[in-house]
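Dear all,

This email documents one entry for the complex benchmark we are building for the journal club exercise. For each entry we list the sequence lines for every component of the assembly. Then comes the predicted three-dimensional structure of the complex as a token string, followed by one or two observations. Please use this as the template for your own entries, and keep the labels exactly as they appear.
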Amino acid sequence: MAAKGVLPRVGVFKLASCDGCQLTLLDCEDELLLLAEKIEFVHFPEGVSFKASGAAEREGPFDLAIIEGSVSTPEQLQTVREIRRQSRALITIGACATSGGIQALRNFVDDDGVNHEALQKLVYAQPEYIDTLATSTPVSEHVAVDFELRGCPIDKGQLLELISAFIRGRSPAIKNESVCFECKRRGTVCVVVADNTPCLGPVTHAGCGAICPAYRRGCYGCFGPRESAATESLAAQMKNIGQSEPEILRAFRLFTAGAPAFEEESRRHE
Amino acid sequence: MTGTLNSVDARLFRGLSLFAGLDDKRLAKIASQFTPLDIPAEAELLQEGEDADQLYILLEGRVSLSVAIPGRAQHETVVSTLSRGQLLGWSALLPNNFWKASAHTLKPCRLLRASGKAIRDLCERDHEIGYCLMKNALVTVGQRLEDCRLQSLNIFGSEDG
Amino acid sequence: MVDPKHPDSKQSDAIGQSFKPGTRLSMPRTGLATLFTLLSAEGFRLVGPTLRNGAIVFDDIATPADLPVGWTDKQSPGGYRLEKRADQRAFGFVVGPHSWKQYLFPPKETLYQATFDPVAQLWRQSGNAAVGSGNGAGGTAFIGVRACDLAAIRIQDRVFIDGKYVDPAYDNRRKASFIVAVNCLEAGDLCFCDSMETGPEVTTGYDICLTEFDDTFLVQAGSGRGEAMVAQLPVQPASQAEQKDLASGLARCRRQMGRQLDTEDLPGLLFANLDHAQWDRVAQRCLACGNCTMVCPTCFCYSADEVADLGEDPAQRERRWDSCFSQQHSQIHGATFQPTIKDRYRQWLTHKLASWTSQFGTSGCVGCGRCIAWCPVGIDLTEEVAAIKADAETPVPLPAYQPVPTAQAAEPFATLFATIEATVTEVVAETPDVVTLSLVMPRGYQYRPGQFNMLSLPGIGEVPISVSGDRNGIVEHTVHRVGNVSAALSALRPGATLGVRGPYGSAWPLAQTPGRPVTIVAGGIGLAPLRSVMRSLAEQDRTTVARNIDSQWVRLVYGAREPEALLFNRELALWRQNAALRVAVTVDHSTADWTGNVGTVTTLLRRKEMPVDGLYLVCGPEVMMLAVVRLLQTAQIPPENIYLSMERNMKCAAGHCGRCQYGPYFICKDGPVFRYDQVAFLFGRRGF
């Protein structure tokens, strides 16, 4: 915690991502003004005009670093280590930063015998300008992370809760439980049981408030796998209701394809 | 300074767990192998790695067992302590053995000491004595193993450190 | 005498107190609308079954047209479908994914709020659970409560209002509820209320009971106010034909039950078969998604969290439905006691069908079948039980239910979560991460060694801390800094105030200490709850007949990780000077200047006398207590002479939130001090 009277210095960073999670912070609107009273945004390229988004060393040290985006290039690998060195606490927000994001789909290409370089040639006219790592990985694979906030995008309320908890010095009320908990607290009728709709809710980390089932859609697993994700049993259930192997594979290979529990399950259906 | 054989009380031996179950005659044979001695504090009794050639019973005082960790600031790390009635040097019960740890006195100690070879020969010649000693030593070593496992578990910390 | 199969509760008794159910009357179908109107006129909010999103759920309703008229439900494991009926029955279905607990025990609820005092620079708790209680100005009328659900309400009454501590929010809502029950004449595909003896007939605990026929309703009053309402309905005496139809309908319903559960000796049988292969088999399928616990009408476990935003709005403590299938349910700092799905499923089933009987005097299951329908993979607990019973070990005895005498119901801290404000007078740093806080408690505060208080810092959290001693009205709490709340407590300075409630829990058996040797074995912070015992024994020696030093000695065997981690050094030195006390201290890891014992407490204890008639009090990390108990058993110490202090996750400290459960026990009220024979069947076993 910063010294009394001094606001905690916060840096917000972006790696490989769509920017949606940082946008969630800006979406806070009223709360953003309150936030600005409680913390000092020392580095926030999206929110505050800076001359240039500099390296962490120039802006640091930070009491809290918030990182969005996955580690996708060699430069980002360095950046992430610099940020960790300069920060007392480091949190990652969103599917990219916590599991590698959609772009982690490229982690699977080597299985087809198509390697990373060949993929670049397929996509880019002048691949010599592209310098990416073969894999897109979460920040936690490279540096110690104090808290991973899931979501694609993250939930605004949860972000505020996390920052409030950090400022206050208490544990954030963010639970690693299934989406089913949220569905049931809301009173939503289970789309699996009543409609035979495929749904990843039972293996997905809660946080969104169970939005999709409230509209009679199955959960897409945006928040990634929860602890004790029994994906094998759920996949068997999906097969029972008529899902094909490719459909089951695709269900586990979406926004959080790189999360180990989902990756392992999708591979079982290749 | 060592005492003579006669000054060692056979009753004393009767109460030591290493000799539990021996009949009087055999107990006397064993007792005759031990001589008492007094050691001041901070003296070295055993050195890790050296030949295991003496058997000790601690009558009074406290002895530390330590292991050398090369490169550590604290070169010798005390892993356990022994006190009254305990066996020091079980390694000497087996031939061609060496000390697994060093032993130092933490307080002034009174001990009984016997030649490891003499005890081993006695065990070979009289298997009753041998079996009895080995059985009792196994119990002691087994308990120490059990306790050591608990000690190594870092029970006062948590799984994440 | 409590009949384990017929759950009743003081609340339901209160409803039907000295009321003989009225005779059955008959009413034309139009009378139902009259009933709705009457209830609304009296200010009741009406909730009942209605169609939504492919199921029959509970929601606000206004007229009988809102009911699922002409619909029924077809249920199977993991499957629920609506089907049109051939008739126009309004109650021609059984149960859906909702239960009445969502009204009496809402999914989310504010327990209290705290306001910031800028002068003192701290948060003060204001109000208590009166915040957010009540569901409408005049209370809530539940329309269409089945017998199984009625039994479930009575079961939750036992949990929340019939114990030593009363949940005031639940109490208020319960008193303000009006129950219109309905008899089931058709059993559902997954129903087994017959096996659980909770239905299908509605017998007690209702205000009005209806039975639906094609042209009429049978109406019966079950309470004074029910009777008053029935008097305003268009009723006439029921015909013989109607009475016969009711009897035969109920009989047919019993015969048609979709499922069966053999409850004979079930509690003891489940606990005798904790290693049965069936647990592994079901764990392969179970998703630990928690759906069963959420739809179950009796499940009551909840979590309590600080919810505070950034502004000047008051910090709140909020509770939410939780479940033993969540990881946080069994998690304390650095340990999770039910890490695997197998552990959690076994916890759920043994609680529901076995532990509950010891805790509340009835089974926790009412046979509604919801958990079977709403399990995405269709696990059927009746099948699971049958599989275990097929080749089971003989049942073991479980602790008997101890009903709380009514007189004790009103205790000083009977209002849940309400704290008193205590002031810190002294903070002693015992070790780098342990402090002892001395708190001034209100006059009359009393505790017994072994008990604990809940220390609350609004906005940060609340944790259970053992009382480690007292002096002149100051009560000492020794806090180990392991998480955010304990860190905040450790940072308090003299003059600070915090919320305190307690004392809770069981105490060390001081009454059994005179006239015999006492051995106290403590590890790490475990010495804290035993310190007042040591002080008491040292005191005993001075004020009562002195102990015979040779045959009634008191020995302390105390171990810590390293010399720096030893607590209460000054007091240890004092105790060493007392001829009746024998103090032996050891550390796991020594430092260069330590000349004391090195090794575990078991190493030390082994060398000491362990008389079989002695009393043994043990407290420390669970793995240490396990090793000590094994050693004591090798020394032939009878289990009744050994006492332990257990620790689990705790939120309410009152036996309501369910988190501190250890098999059939609540550590907050049956413990934390246990006599070993009470817990021997579980102690050291993984997954509890």
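Observations: The longest strand of chain A covers residues 62-68. Chains A and B do not touch (no CB pair under 8 Å).
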